[in-house]
Write a structure and sequence with these properties.
The chain contains 24 helices and 26 strands. It is elongated. The relative contact order is 0.10. The site of one 2-acetamido-2-deoxy-beta-D-glucopyranose (NAG) has 4 residues, from helix 9. The site of one 2-acetamido-2-deoxy-beta-D-glucopyranose has 2 residues, from loops.
């Protein structure tokens, strides 16, 4: 009964999703597929939705059914108990995925598994009854353990069939030989269970096992699938490597109707994780009549850089690449496989947008290339960005240009150059030291090499190393002439920060430089593209207000749960739109969503557009609720919170999201439904709940008001031969740089890399 109890809150919370299952049945599409059968590739949920719940648990299986295509196949790794029951657990040693080591203390044993001595707790030493007090836990340490208190019991194959009622069941027999050595017969088990339960697939990496059962199963009901392990691993019943078995697919066809292979058998990657040309395995196998299933799809482990951390892109390269489609994918995150197959495959490049949301770049396509370089901007344009952004910085000689930060250290190689001696500390701008753009001439800045941003390096997630210093920087007028001719662009966004400091202390007029460049490039005249000017400083927007027809965007740079009416009225006075952080839309605690705030509806009621940042593809940037799937996250903000703009360093993902066919379905299928903020956290049991956090503050008038914009100070610049030598510190020369400060900040930088 414990299983059913743990299931019921899930059902209640996700009940609305159930309604969509019917609709999904209806929307099954008829496009032609390059699969062997011509049917849609199947989605196989490995251990259920094991990317979020403990593998093989009732909630894991239920969530897979609730979020996937309606004909999802559910995968069970079968282990045999001492009394020959078949239970679903991912590994032959139970200690990885259960609490058995604390139930039966000090009772681990060593056994030979395929000739390798392996220590652990093995199911052969326990009867089903012995295991009734053992509960499932999260075995993958990078995933949340917050559901370990849910007391999920071990399920037998029959339990899964009768309690979960999956549309299709796939049994994997990973270790027939091991069980046979202990007088347990996987063959007898599958033959016996198949009399009571419909088994759609049986897979095994052991040739001998599949040969021993192949005559006993009707392939129209139960397909046998040979599972390939690593190319150099030895298949235990033939003593051949899997790599050599691959050379005779005809032989495999004699005992199986399909093969299951690691992804790399189809799309190999090189040592630095770049994709190489695909092999001919899928078409070779299809030629001999074998179906091909690809394994190891997980959203939360780095995969090839060619997919830009977007798991949907990866699935599409296996199912919709123009050449072939695999016949199914084995995934820990079946929602992503489902949306890829049903919503994104066969999407015409001309597909119309289905939702009215602007895709606004964050430093161009800075997820793929160094921020604000020509290559990042061109990539964003070809990725279909709607609004291209330029955060304006200014050089010592007054040239406005695009760069992600006023501190050159963040996105250039400046510390490795002679200009590193220009490091200073300016607390009004940032804590610690920096090498600021206004300390160098534009000619000097041009010589710096860009360096790719790595916002998630502390999780060891890095952006494309191949392009880590690619591209060149653009002046604002270069940027505007690049954007001016792009018919696909709806507009440009110019972000102005630190303008008051620069005017008052450095005598640099950023606002004037921006307005001048816009005027010079024709953007001050009405045109097809709009101009958005963004600042977190209300005095900047107030100063620009009234200049041409620019859309003024106020960036709220802290998180709030609500806004006072008077604050909203103030914003209305100088802005048309507001930029909020994701956390001001859906609140979070320990990567669990806790609820929705009131600030978005309030701003929208006042007719202010709401743009939200930053949507990144790296899964560590997303709450657990979004299943490590950037599309699920974007969808929940766009449909669930009704935001007007998505600010993203991966514009391709957001643009493709807008066009996906499931958005136009009358009833959105569950994998294109929004997540309910707070629902997942309710499934966490009390001892595992993270401590509650103080609520976010309310945005007040005081937060918004700023001193009036200061006049631009008259500072006579110290003349220097432009570009030939490093610029000496600017006019008023008030900043003392010290090598020790620079060295210490570099040391911290280096140390933080080593600690990764
Ligand atoms: C537990 O499982 C994870 C993921 O499959 C694996 O990386 C790890 O090596 C396993 N640990 C043990 C003790 O088997
Ligand atoms: C298990 O072993 C540890 C250390 O050897 C010992 O302290 C503990 O009492 C043992 N537990 C049981 C239940 O035997
Ligand atoms: C398996 O069964 C055989 C014959 O009944 C017996 O000789 C052998 O000891 C058993 N092996 C194990 C590991 O139980
Ligand atoms: C499987 O189905 C095909 C087509 O319906 C049929 O021709 C064949 O006889 C069936 N095979 C078995 C073993 O039932
Ligand atoms: C595979 O190798 C093992 C150990 O070397 C041996 O006992 C077994 O007979 C071999 N099997 C085959 C099919 O060659
Ligand atoms: C492949 O296997 C088939 C069937 O077992 C066999 O007849 C054939 O000779 C094998 N081909 C090669 C190249 O080994
Ligand atoms: C993967 O990306 C690298 C670097 O951009 C490129 O050279 C390679 O051709 C890409 N691979 C595929 C299969 O597109
Ligand atoms: C997309 O549009 C282009 C030009 O409008 C057209 O030539 C092309 O056939 C369209 N492609 C598809 C798949 O509809
Ligand atoms: C999208 O919204 C904008 C601004 O609200 C409006 O001008 C435009 O007509 C809308 N487009 C569609 C396709 O609904
Ligand atoms: C740094 O200065 C030295 C000596 O003035 C010069 O030789 C070198 O080329 C400079 N390096 C750079 C990157 O400017
Ligand atoms: C933009 O278009 C104009 C007129 O068609 C052309 O003269 C200019 O060279 C183009 N600029 C760029 C950067 O392509
Ligand atoms: C804008 O540009 C026009 C010519 O292109 C020039 O006459 C005008 O003075 C400029 N205005 C400003 C404010 O720079």
């Amino acid at each position: 009964m414990r299983n059913l109890r743990s299931l019921s809150p899930l059902l209640t919370l996700l009940l609305p999703l159930l309604l969509h299952l019917l609709a999904a049945l209806v929307s099954a599409q008829g496009s032609s597929w390059n699969t062997l059968s011509g049917n849609t590739p199947i989605v196989v949920a490995r251990g259920g939705f094991s990317g979020i719940f403990p593998d093989s648990s009732s909630s894991s299986y239920s969530l897979a059914l609730l979020t996937s295509v309606s004909d999802v196949t559910v995968w069970c790794d079968v282990q045999l108990t001492k009394d020959a029951a078949g239970i679903c657990l991912p590994n032959i040693n139970l200690d990885n995925s259960t609490d058995i080591a604390s139930v039966f203390q000090n009772q681990s044993k060593s056994y030979l598994v395929n000739g390798v001595s392996t220590r652990g707790y093995f199911s052969i030493d326990y009867t089903l009854k012995d295991l009734s007090n053992v509960v499932l836990t999260q075995g993958v340490y990078s995933r949340t353990n917050k559901f370990d208190g849910s007391l999920f019991t071990i399920l037998t194959v029959e339990d899964v069939a009768s309690q979960i009622k999956p549309p299709h069941l796939w049994l994997n027999i990973q270790h027939d030989q091991f069980y046979a050595q202990h007088n347990l017969s996987a063959r007898n088990f599958v033959l016996s269970v198949s009399r009571r339960v419909v088994i759609s697939y049986i897979s095994s990496p052991e040739v001998g096992f599949l040969r021993s059962i192949s005559a006993r199963f009707n392939p129209n009901i139960t397909k046998l699938v040979f599972r390939f392990l690593g190319q150099d691993d030895v298949e235990p019943t033939t003593n051949q490597t899997y790599g050599s078995l691959l050379n005779n697919l005809t032989d495999i066809k004699s005992f199986a109707s399909g093969i299951l292979v690691p992804k790399g058998y189809i799309w190999p990657v090189d040592a630095s994780l770049y994709l190489q040309p695909h092999t001919t395995l899928v078409s070779d196998a299809h030629k001999v009549g074998l179906e091909v299933f690809a394994a190891d799809f997980v959203n939360d482990v780095p995969f090839s850089f060619n997919y830009s951390y977007d798991p949907v892109s990866e699935y599409l390269s296996f199912i919709d690449n123009g050449d072939f489609s695999v016949d199914g994918v084995l995934s820990d995150f079946p929602i992503t496989a489902s949306e890829a197959a049903d919503c994104f495959a066969h999407l015409s490049p001309n597909a119309t947008t289905k939702v009215n949301v602007s895709v606004i770049s964050k430093y161009g396509a800075s997820g793929d290339y160094p921020a604000c370089t020509n290559v990042a901007y061109n990539q964003a344009i070809s990725d279909g960005v709607d609004v291209l952004d330029c955060p304006v910085q200014i050089s010592r000689d007054g040239t406005p240009f695009c760069l992600s930060s006023i501190d050159l250290i963040e996105s250039t190689n400046v510390v490795q150059t002679n200009y590193s001696r220009l490091a200073t500390s300016i607390p009004e701008i940032k804590s610690g030291t920096g090498i600021f753009t206004f300390s160098l001439t534009w000619d000097a800045i041009k010589t710096l090499k860009p360096s790719i941003l790595n916002p998630y390096s502390k999780y060891r997630l890095f952006r494309s190393p191949k392009y880590k210093d690619a591209g060149t920087f653009l002046t604002l007028s270069d940027f505007l002439s690049l954007t001016k001719n792009q018919t696909s662009l709806q507009g440009v966004l110019i972000n102005i920060e630190n303008a008051a400091y620069l005017a008052e202390k450095e005598g640099l007029d950023v606002i004037g430089a921006v307005l001048g460049a816009l005027n010079a490039s024709g953007y001050s005249q009405p045109g097809k593209q709009k101009v958005l000017i963004q600042s977190s400083d209300s005095s900047v927007l107030l100063k620009i207000k009234g200049n041409a027809n620019y859309e003024l965007v106020y960036e709220v740079d802290k998180d709030f749960r609500d806004a006072m009416d008077s604050a909203v009225a103030d914003i209305k006075n100088f802005a048309h739109a507001v930029v909020l952080d994701k956390a001001s839309v859906f609140t979070e605690n320990n990567f669990f969503l806790t609820g929705s705030t009131k600030i978005v509806p309030k701003l929208k009621a006042a007719n202010l557009s709401v743009y939200v940042e930053t949507f990144s593809n790296e899964f560590v940037s997303q709450a657990w609720d979004f299943f490590s799937d950037s599309t699920v996250e974007i969808n929940s903000y766009v449909i669930g919170a009704d935001i007007d703009g998505v600010i993203t360093d991966f514009p391709k993902t957001a643009n493709r999201y807008k066009r996906n066919s499931c958005l136009s379905a009358k009833t959105r299928p569950p994998y294109m439904d929004i997540v309910q903020p707070g629902a997942l956290l309710q499934l966490v049991t009390a001892p595992y709940l993270p401590p509650a956090e103080a609520p976010l503050p309310v945005l007040t008038d005081q937060e918004i008001s700023e001193a009036p914009f200061p006049p631009v100070a008259q500072i006579t610049p110290v003349p220097s031969p432009a570009g030939t030598t490093p610029g000496s510190p600017p006019g008023n020369n008030q900043h003392k740089f010290t090598v020790s400060i620079l060295l210490s900040s570099l040391a911290v930088l280096v140390a933080s890399f080593l600690l990764l």
